[in-house]
Amino acid sequence: MIPSQYYIIAKLLSIESYIKPETGESMSKPLSILGKYLNKPVIVELRGGKQYRGILDGFDPHLNLVLRSAEEMSEGKLVRKHDLAIVRGDNVIYISP
Asked: Which DSSP string corresponds to 16-51?
């Protein structure tokens, strides 16, 4: 049996928007916003000063990312190019269009 707190979190992640209790305004979920950038170029900043630039091909609720035609950057300089790169979500600081 799945503990109820995990079930609630899973349900919240699958909802595209929700009502903010304090103000009553509609808010978009971060994953639904990220979904709008599928097949579009993104910049991903990682811990340790690394950065990836590429086409967002997929992601999961843990922010594990799949990038196509990715460029690995370090300190603003190109380190290498990848046809496909998988980035572990624990290392992501931000994702920018």
From this structure: SEEE-TTT--EEE-HHHHHHTTTTSEEEEEEGGGEE
- 37-97, which class in CATH? mainly beta
In the numeric block, which tokens belong to residue 72?
Answer: 């690995």
**What letter does residue 81 receive in the DSSP assignment?**
E
Per-residue pLDDT of the chain (97 residues; tens, 9 = 90+): 444 444 444 444 444 444 555 666 666 677 788 888 999 999 999 998 899 999 999 999 888 999 999 999 998 899 999 999 999 999 999 999 8
Q: How far apart are CA 66 and CA 70, in angstroms?
A: 9
The domains of the chain are located at 1-35, 37-97
Question: What are residue 58's DSSP bridge partners?
Answer: 66
